[in-house]
Amino acid sequence: MLRSWLLLGFALIPQLAHAQRLSDSGVQTSFSKQPALKWEDGMVTGNGLIGSLHYGPPERQVIVFNSHKFLVPNGAAFPVPDMTDQLDELRDGMLAGNIGPAYQEFHDELLRRRGLPVVHKPYYGMVSSQPFHAGYQLVVDIPGAEEPTQYHRKTVYGTGEVFNWWSHDQGSWGMRSFASRADNVLITDLNPLEHVKLTCTLSAELPSRAPKNVETKTLVERVPDGALINFRAKYPKKNSKQAGYEGVTKVIVDGGKVFIEGETIRIVDADSILLLTKLERYRNDLHEWDKKKLQIELSEIKPDYQSLLDRHTKIHKPIYDRVTLTLGEKTLASLGRGQGEGKTNTELLTAESKNRESVNLALLERLFATSRYLFLSSSGKDYAPRLSGMFSGSWTAAWAGDYTCDSNVNMAVFGGNIADLPECMEGYFAILERTLPQWREAAKNYYGCRGILGPVRIDGEYAIPIHCGPYHAHFTATGLGPWLLYPLWEHYQITGDKQFLRERLHPLLVEQAHFYEDFLTRTDDQGNYVFVPSNSPENAWAGIKPRTSAAINSVMDIAACKHALTMLLEAEKEFEIAPSGSTKRWQQMLTKLPPYLVNNDGVFKEWAWESYGENPGHRHLSHLYPLWPAYEVNPENPGTRDFMPALANAIRKRPQGIVQAHGGLQKAIGWLRLKNGEEFGKVLKYFLENGYFYDGLSSSHDRGHKIFNYDLVLCLQGLVIESIVFTDTDYNGETASGVVELLPALPEFMNQGKLTGVKARCQTTIESLEWNLDERWVRARVTSDKDQTLVIRHRGGMKKIESNVDHSTTPENAFTVDATAGEPVEVKVEF
Length: 831
Hints:
The chain contains 20 helices and 33 strands.
């Protein structure tokens, strides 16, 4: 008798309603007809804390277990030595023009105070995060499954399930897996189909490239309904402490026979096998695993795949479904909807790579859905997505798999708030809040300041403010804190949650202001503050010897200070309290910030300091901070709009051939904020056709499938949304106004479509936004959470405006409507 679950999952019986639903929504899946022979091509499922990565040929299925908690101890948190007695010497030397020698001496003393010899190698002395690693892998060996006649694998985004199905002349087999958000358990169901039985072996092992000094032990035992596999691992001792981790898999066998053969389970002629897995890490006391807490938790779980899936889906699916994107009728044809699964990932990626004239909208739609799914899989209440999301198939992810805070994590969460994923963004807020002790220590011990100094690296448990070397002067980047805090402000703009603002955000903005009050002690001849030391990650002034990224007046640092003070002042307006003495000081500080500069070539300068030349060959574009995240420079701000051409020239001045994804992402966001859909479209198309996406649709750090990294794929949802609709709150004037800009930077290849469910930065939901460039119209339905005036803008012209509420036009292709809380506003613009 055929088992129905796999047929439903792969839509093999079109007459069934569920199968028809799946076949009509191929965009909401990742689909391939080839096994993932490399783990980078694998498919993943996660609940924001634990997850699994699936790859391998049918005869050797590999399930790699991952957890945000799996970090190799390295002694973190590392204390920052008190360097305040060296600060004036550093500043005096830099202002005298001795940038390199002054920083080098400061760094040499930092090494000495850390008990290290003075060595001038590029990365010497740099303290890194606790490395994130894959825990272990469960290998399912299935004799006779080689060279199948048919093979499918698929991730269904709406449920979070990963499917594998293959067939031979003698029968068919399949696996389905998901990570439960309800029960915090990883579940895999193995089933033979068509009157065949399943014979296989199960074994646990460390993933590839695991170091030899990790001690492991696998305990296998019989239980009444199957067996238990308990994989235990000890990290090398650090500071006389022994940490480790474990995973327990309960193997529930229906029919057949179970044999224990050393550390391997052999199952013969089973009707089905259900695997339930729990993971945990122990920081100090490995005796915790002797209490068998995971085994007890597994014994309390009802071993029924469908009931567990239903509990999980009730949480997962409503979150995933909040925002949708379709890109017109052309997408329906290219997906092959109504024709089974439609195009595979490889077919879509290959077609795009061969087509230099246009963009495959089916691919873009699927990647948008993938972006949303992977963000949800990698995020929860305690953790945000890492550099590799939450996944790795080998022991250590690149760059310790941490949160790199000088653009990477910032871009990964770019769309998290507006894509209505507050449950995921909570993890981002949490990692900032629990690492604040290190932020405060850095402010105090480097600069003698109150308040907080944002770090360049966070491993999920600790910030690493001492991560610096002879070149990478990361602690001199004082603008990282405001950049990291901005998503909290964006959350408030969207929700209007006064309790969140008062209890969680406002205190941090005050601490950030206190830092700047104490840090900005030097002024120039015009009485403006001088940011010294300063940093524009990860670039350096041209001509500095010895070479260092330490500098003076980086635009990122200046703009971030302005941003922090502006957010704080706007927050205090929201409290509707009278200005205090502190408020007046912060307002005065804004008047003393150094002005931005434009060079003789009309290029926006990366450092607002005349003495040294620019270095445009670097991938980072941190001096776009006035565009993003601040949006200080914009067409509606008469005090800054003149900088927009210079900022465009700054982007063009950077290398045109994109290699590292995050450099291209900074360009893409810059073009979005400059309202240039044509240039944004060029960057987006470059990403789609140059090997940045693996077969499972995870992304790589470099073009050509090099280095598994989630920067690009996670940022994608935000990029696409902001090209279709930009939102903000305009705080100028006596009362704030919501801003909804329709099609601000839409590439021509996205000529028609529909976007639903986006959250606006003005306590408003974009219920739906539809457009057709060929017929020259755009219409939107928006609902405000409060009574307010909304400014609705369309820069492409407004020949005719229709609305269900009264409206009045304003200059610059905009009109206003008075929105009433909870009552939809419908508008249509013909252009």
